[in-house]
Design a protein that fits this description.
The complex is a heterodimer.
Chain A: H1 16-21, H2 29-37, H3 41-63, H4 66-83, H5 93-108, H6 130-151, H7 155-165, H8 171-178, H9 182-201
Chain B: H1 6-13, H2 19-27, H3 29-47, H4 55-70, H5 85-104, H6 128-140, H7 143-148, H8 158-163, H9 167-185
The chains are: A mainly alpha, B mainly alpha.
Chain lengths: ~200, ~190
């Protein structure tokens, strides 16, 4: 063009504004956090993508149903975005996100046992052999009973059981998340298993 | 020897029990039974898998989070966080009520001719019933009669503004005050 401004000549170096937006998904969490704090929401998108499954799973284990779990997971990430400046990297980002998710769950999920989803029978009748179908159904029923029993545990016991059993976090990590000691975590885990045994023992 | 504590029972279930205590466990039927029972219920809990959401769900969740985050300000928050309707509406309503109260009530230290001798606004601690009375008065007062009786308010004050309200505006003000008082009471 005559004024030389309308068309940018081809260059191997992308314009500056593009560089800001392109996020390498392989970047480590610390770099992504730094970029997010600097206001780069695309960097936070990558954090969400990387940790959404774990956060959702914690929420699901707490809430017992998909809808509440989705809401809680969203709330956890929004809280994380708001609090990102306070994340100093003393723990892994995943541990910090677990803590936020657990706190969101503890504040939202009431003492009343949440509504757990019914047995999914979709796979049950694919097998035409009656005995197998019956066994599958019994397993599904038992799984619902266990989920319901977990949902009925006191909050700290529930959190400890979920983080230890399904997310394989160490006692120390759980203590950091719940703001308690390793001893308290072990005691909570012990009582959670004991209560679970009692509840399931009384199931028909 | 003492039986295993809850901590030690958990260690035993997880296979991290101190060797010295393992000897007790090996010889104590009660502790062994307790460990087996805990291990059994833990095993049952572990087998409960979480239903996998639809593959489309993960992108949907990301999109929901992205939308919510875009509606937020910078991480850590700033004053922009307050510029949202869910925050602004209640604050605006509260400000309106406060303004209505300010314009309806006599200001401290501003004597009103015709008031009871020796009484000032400081002497009057208004209870909710008192506020109700004010609300009724604002709605029912005949300002022409009040003027003829010598009730004078300095021009330019908020009180003047209240006096200048027409009958409908006074009625609305009265309604607002009553509604607020009812809300506080409830």
């Amino acid at each position: 063009m005559a004024d030389g401004t309308a068309i940018r000549p081809w260059s191997t170096t992308p314009p500056t504004e593009w560089v800001v937006k392109v996020i390498n998904p392989d970047r480590d969490d610390a770099a992504l956090v730094a970029e997010s704090v600097a206001g780069n929401r695309e960097a936070f998108d990558v954090i969400v993508e990387r940790h959404r499954r774990a956060v959702y799973q914690v929420c699901y284990r707490f809430a017992g149903n998909h809808e509440d779990a989705s809401d809680l997971a969203q709330e956890a990430f929004v809280r994380a975005w708001r609090g990102l400046k306070n994340f100093k990297g003393q723990s892994a980002l995943s541990t910090w996100l677990y803590r936020i998710a657990v706190n969101a769950c503890l504040s939202r999920v009431g003492a009343k046992a949440p509504i757990t989803e019914p047995i999914e029978t979709g796979d049950t009748f694919e097998d035409t052999r009656i005995e197998d179908a019956r066994a599958t159904l019994l397993r599904a029923e038992r799984a619902v009973a266990v989920r319901k029993a977990i949902a009925g545990l006191p909050k700290k016991q529930r959190a400890t059981l979920i983080l230890r059993t399904y997310h394989d976090l160490s006692h120390q990590q759980i203590a950091d998340i719940l703001g308690s000691s390793v001893g308290a975590v072990k005691a909570n885990f012990f009582h959670a298993l004991g209560n679970l045994k009692k509840i399931l023992g009384s199931e028909p | 020897m003492n039986h295993l504590t809850p901590d030690e029972l958990i260690d035993a279930v997880e296979g991290t029990l101190d060797p010295a205590r393992r000897e007790h466990l090996a010889s104590c039927e009660l502790c062994a039974r307790e460990v087996a029972s805990l291990a059994s219920v833990l095993s049952e809990a572990r087998q409960v898998e979480m239903p996998e959401p639809s593959p489309l769900f993960w992108n949907h969740l990301s999109a929901r989070v992205r939308t919510a985050v875009r509606a937020e300000s910078q991480p850590g928050g700033g004053w922009e966080r307050w510029l949202r309707w869910p925050v602004l509406l209640p604050i605006g309503a509260l400000a309106l009520i406060v303004f209505a109260l300010m314009t309806a009530l006599p200001r401290q230290g501003m004597p009103v001719e015709g008031s009871i001798a020796g009484s000032t606004s400081e002497d009057v601690a208004l209870t909710d019933d008192g506020w109700m009375l004010v609300a009724d008065l604002v709605g029912e007062i005949d300002w022409e009669t009040a003027g003829a009786a010598g009730v004078v308010v300095r021009p330019g004050t908020a009180d003047q503004a209240a006096l200048e309200l027409n009958a409908q505006e006074q009625k609305e003000l009265s309604r607002l005050i009553k509604a607020e008082l009812e809300r506080v009471k409830s």
